[in-house]
């Protein structure tokens, strides 16, 4: 992204102060152990690859705007009705639709101060008033802050970048106490150890649960998200989808997703490996003196008393390992580490030991 100083003279005044979301580095000039963007370390499933390759033969034709087969298969997998599900170009698209549909000057948005950075961007680009509620000192959501808040609630569960999850029991309290506002639960990381709130969508008309194939199903590059809610909310989202980009899911992505659904055993095997590798890496980090949050996601959020987050990030990068560092005041001492293969985690720990040894010699 170029700097704001390079914007044209014609750029609308309403966007002049917009600070865009900063995606994680995607380096092109060097091979890294890439642990910075929460991608899966595993390739897409064999059927996903096969079906996508076959689908490209018909790329001259527009895809099905309703994603009929995919919606049917995915709704069955998730245990919901097809009228209660829609698919989008990554979960970012449906999150943006939610800001468009359920937030305005009478319905403000509310979300944690430490969470997915796109929420603030979506609020600003849609001219939505919003409030950021501070997490507690241990980075947990204070449930009482969202009870009867009477605003449109956005909660990532597990949260990012902390990885800490709320239980469906707690989330139900938030949903039930805000009957006049929609509550959006962003479950991008739910498959790695949290419990989904999708069953609650059958009980509450004001709950929208979003998900993605980017993480647990190894399709970050394919861009497939989804939303589950009552049929009326799904109709709202589809109205916006058809008003912006009705062919939002391309043929290859649809086909790859169908293959991934058929290869559910492959997904479960990979999830098991990532959860085991997360436990291994967390144990190693704790033994080295790190503080690590209780992550239920495919990443760890950690800090060390002897090395600040910015230094740890830059020293790891110099040694060929990429992690994510955020410069927010409360989290600048932390790094977020994507959980990769066991070999990648062992390399990470080896490089961290080198850095800590040098830090203690100074």
Summary of the model, kept short:
The protein has 362 residues and is α/β, with parallel strands linked by helices. Helix content is 36%, strand content 14%.
Biggest sheet features = 7 strands, mixed
Helix proportion range:
25-40%
Determine the number of helices (DSSP H or I, runs of at least 4 residues). Answer: 10
Q: What series of H and E elements makes up the topology? A: EHHEHEHEEHEEEHHHEEHEEEH
Average pLDDT score: 95
What is the gyration radius calculated from CA atoms? 21 Å
CATH superfamily of the largest domain: Type I PLP-dependent aspartate aminotransferase-like (Major domain)
Strand order of the largest sheet: 2-8-7-6-5-3-4
Oligomeric state:
single chain
What characteristic shape results from the CA principal axes? globular
Work out the count of structural domains: 2
From the 3D structure, determine the CATH topology of the largest domain: Aspartate Aminotransferase, domain 2
Describe it for me?
With 362 residues, the chain is of the alpha/beta class. The protein folds into 2 domains: 25-42 and 265-361, Aspartate Aminotransferase, domain 1, CATH 3.90.1150; 46-262, Aspartate Aminotransferase, domain 2. Helices cover 36% and strands 14% of the residues. The chain has helices spanning 46-55, 68-78, 90-102, 118-125, 168-177, 231-244, 251-262, 264-287, 309-318, 342-361, and strands spanning 33-34, 85-88, 109-112, 130-133, 152-156, 183-186, 207-212, 225-228, 291-292, 299-303, 321-322, 324-325, 334-338. The strands form 3 sheets. Strands 2-8-7-6-5-3-4 form a 7-stranded mixed sheet, with helices on both faces. The protein has a 4-stranded antiparallel sheet with strand order 9-10-13-12, with helices on one face. Helix 4 (118-125) links the parallel strand 3 and strand 4 (130-133). Helix 1 (46-55) packs antiparallel against helix 7 (251-262), helix 3 packs across helix 6 (231-244) and helix 8 (264-287) runs parallel beside helix 10 (342-361). The longest helix has 24 residues, at 264-287. It is globular and about 60 Å long. The two termini are 37 Å apart.
């Amino acid at each position: 992204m170029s700097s704001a100083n390079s914007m044209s003279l014609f750029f609308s005044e309403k966007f002049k102060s917009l600070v865009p979301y900063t995606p994680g580095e995607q380096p092109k000039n060097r091979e890294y152990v890439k642990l910075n963007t929460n991608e899966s370390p595993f390739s897409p499933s064999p059927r996903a690859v096969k079906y996508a390759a076959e689908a490209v033969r018909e790329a001259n034709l527009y895809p099905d705007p309703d994603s009929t087969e995919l919606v049917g298969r995915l709704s069955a997998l998730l245990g919901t009705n097809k009228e209660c599900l829609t698919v989008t170009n990554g979960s970012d698209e449906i999150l943006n639709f939610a800001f468009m549909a359920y937030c305005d000057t009478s319905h403000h948005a509310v979300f944690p101060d430490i969470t997915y950075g796109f929420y603030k961007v979506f609020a600003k680009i849609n001219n939505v008033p919003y409030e950021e509620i501070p997490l507690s000192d241990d980075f947990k959501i204070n449930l009482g802050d969202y009870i009867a808040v009477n605003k449109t609630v956005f909660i990532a569960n597990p949260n990012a970048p902390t990885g800490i999850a709320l239980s469906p029991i707690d989330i139900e309290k938030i949903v039930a106490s805000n009957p006049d506002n929609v509550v959006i639960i962003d479950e991008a990381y739910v498959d790695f150890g949290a419990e989904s709130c999708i069953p609650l969508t059958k009980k509450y008309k004001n709950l929208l649960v979003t998900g993605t194939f980017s993480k647990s199903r190894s399709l970050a590059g394919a861009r497939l998200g989804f939303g589950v809610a009552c049929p009326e909310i799904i109709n709202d989202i589809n109205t916006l989808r058809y008003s912006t980009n009705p062919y939002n899911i391309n043929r290859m992505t649809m086909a790859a997703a169908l293959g991934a659904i058929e290869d559910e055993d492959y997904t479960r095997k990979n999830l098991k490996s990532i959860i085991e590798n997360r436990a291994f890496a967390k144990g190693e980090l704790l033994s080295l003196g790190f503080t690590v949050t209780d992550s239920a996601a495919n990443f760890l959020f950690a800090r060390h008393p002897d090395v600040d987050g910015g230094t740890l990030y830059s020293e790891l990068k110099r040694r060929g390992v990429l992690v994510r560092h955020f410069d927010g005041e409360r989290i600048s001492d932390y790094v977020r580490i994507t959980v990769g293969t066991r070999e990648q985690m062992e390399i990470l720990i080896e490089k961290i030991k080198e850095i800590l040894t040098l830090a203690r010699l100074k």
